[in-house]
Each structure stands twice: as structure tokens, then as C-alpha cells.
Amino acid sequence: MTSSGFGSLPAIMNIAENLGEALGRGVARGLASGMHGVDGAARRGRPPKSGLMMAPSSDRACSVPGCGREMRSKGMCSAHYQAARRKALARA
Ligand SMILES: [Zn+2]
């Protein structure tokens, strides 16, 4: 029995320690910036599901004939709006 097997142990411990430290720092940084972002977003943020809250679907349906889905933006449902946007992007 030799102790060669244990030779690499300190190195591994070292790496683990460094990793832990880096992770800890990263988490701390993430938490700090995350809290910042959440705070700012919570104050100003976008209205939560305003479309669903304000729109009776019968009144605000997709303007594409035969679709009948709930309007999301620009008078179209999300699917048709995305399709229209894709078309516009392709044209540009
Ligand atoms: Zn539609």
C-alpha cells in the first residue's frame, strides 16, 4: 500500500474549494442583481395578463376571418400576429 492514491486528494479539495468560492460569489452576485431586477420590474413591469383581464373574447377576437381566437396584439391572435410579423420580417 502506498499513499499515492491520496496524493491527488489535496488538489481535488483545492479545486472544490475554489469552485465553492466561485459559486458562492456568483450566487451572491446573482442574488444582488436579481433582487435589483425584481424590484425594478415589480414597480414598473408590464401589466399582468391585461389582455385576459380586460377583454371579453367575443368582443376582441382575432381579425383573421375564420380564426375566432382571442386577440392578442394588433387585432390578431398570437399565432396570426407572429405569422404576420414573420412575413413582415421576411419582406424587410
Ligand atoms: Zn388568428
The class by helix and strand makeup works out as mainly alpha
- Average pLDDT over all residues: 75
Order of helix and strand elements from N to C terminus: HHHH
Small molecules bound:
zinc ion
Identify the overall geometry.
elongated
- The low-confidence runs, each spanning 5 or more residues with pLDDT under 50, are none
- CA-to-CA gap between the ends? 73 Å
The count of DSSP E runs of length 2 or more, i.e. the number of strands, is 0
Strand content: under 5%
Number of helices: 4
Percent of residues in helices comes to: 55-70%
Integer-rounded radius of gyration? 27 Å
Q: Main beta sheet, described?
A: none
Describe this protein's structure.
This protein is 64% helix and 0% strand. The protein contains four helices and no strands. The longest helix has 36 residues, at 9-44. It is an all-alpha fold. The protein is elongated, with a radius of gyration of 27 Å. Bound molecules: zinc ion. Zinc ion binds next to helix 4.
Write a short abstract of this structure.
The protein is an all-alpha fold and 92 residues long. The protein has helices at residues 4-7, 9-44, 50-54, 78-91.
Defining key terms:
mainly alpha, 92 residues, 64% helix, binds zinc ion, 4 helices, elongated
